[in-house]
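Quality-control log, excerpt.
Job 1 of 2 completed; input and output follow.
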Amino acid sequence: MNYGKQLLLFTCILFSSLFIKNVLADAESPHIKKISFIDLSSSPKAFLIYDELLGLKERPGSFQFEQIHVVYMWAAWGGSTLNTGTGNVNDKRPVKNYSDLPPLDYLSNNGYLDDAGMQQQGGYGDTAGLTKDYNGLIAVDFESWPRFDSKDFKAAKQGALTVPSKTMLETMEKISMTINVLKEAYPNAKIGWYDLTGGYPVSGFPNVNDQTLAAWEKINDLYADIIEKIDVLMPSLYVSRTRGDRKTRLSFDDYLKKIEMIIAEQRRLAPNKPVIAFVSPHIMDEYPQLLPLNEWETAIEQYKALLDGVVLWSKHKPKFSHAEMKPYIDLLR
């Protein structure tokens, strides 16, 4: 073999070795480990998009997204009044505290879970009602049942919360009953619960210490039986320009890091369940201000990399047009 061929062979071997070394180094990097809950070996799955843009003037939207029905607490219990369960639709009393409401079981006996009832309580006339063979997604948005209280969180930070507290047990019972009723009424539907294991405890991100993170995980672990009952995990990933104190500014990079943490927690809790997050192109603490399109595009890249889908949500007022939303929808395609 002449000198030129020997040099060429040596060069090929050298570059091959460097390439393999770099690939192995990347695979062992902290960033890859950080998102190791993503199965990169599996074939790409469809990214699901659901429309709950309540402020859109043209309802239902013409974006042809997946079916979803969101059960809002205020709508399920008739707004500011509560059906007493006597069978008389006019026999109601004011609701002073939503957290005191009973489970959903009595609603099935008072017309709320039949086709007409679910159509009525859909919120803004944007649903066609549900029938028993409905096989889309039902998202339950009952935010007033406290998952834990301040005493629970303090105990969790101190490592003293080993079993659910009274507050947690009461909420677990109500959630469990609600899921059972919905699954009986709509056996083919997929049930998700809004922000069940979400990131409220880390709302001060990035000023969150390991003790706080451990407490958040502990409380979520105690909800294991509820997580097992639902079909989909549905964290809230809305963009905010401020942290939990509503004063300290939050950069967009901080937002991206925070949602990666929240999504990783969902994957830890239920690695075999889909994670479909509530998101919005609006800035929640500057509503109805829309995100700059370049930030929305970056957020979508993150959503598609880490989630199975999103629910596009907006407040019902003020209204906005299809044309205003179209550039944001186009980036999701």
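Job 2 of 2 completed; input and output follow.
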Amino acid sequence: MVLINIKNLTKEALIEKYNELQAEIEGLKRAIGDLRKFANEVCDKNSQLNAEARQLQGKCVCLEENLTLVQKELLKHRWIPVGESYPPDIDGIQVLLLYKDGKIQKDTTFEGGTPIWLGLTHWKPIPEAPEAKP
């Protein structure tokens, strides 16, 4: 920005220059106001987005916890390959046994026994029955 030389201007030229500068100043003030308004809107939007992000993050944590619960529950119901593990050597656990020929057998595990698992491919624990309501 360059300062103007006003020494040789007539009164009419000075008034005209004054009006031009005044109009330019008013235009700049409007532009500054618009920019401030826009900056405030951006800040408000940013605050809204941050709040929404926090809300979504909380929802995501809750969904992840639910997913973990569902995964654990599904694991209770899946057939476990004998290559992964055999039924536990603990007394009294009810299990289903799946053999190569497709036969499914209900059995009870026992501690210290020597089970014969010939042809066994998969097994799964039988879940406990729900509590009966009168």
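Post-run check on job 2. Helices lie at 11-77.
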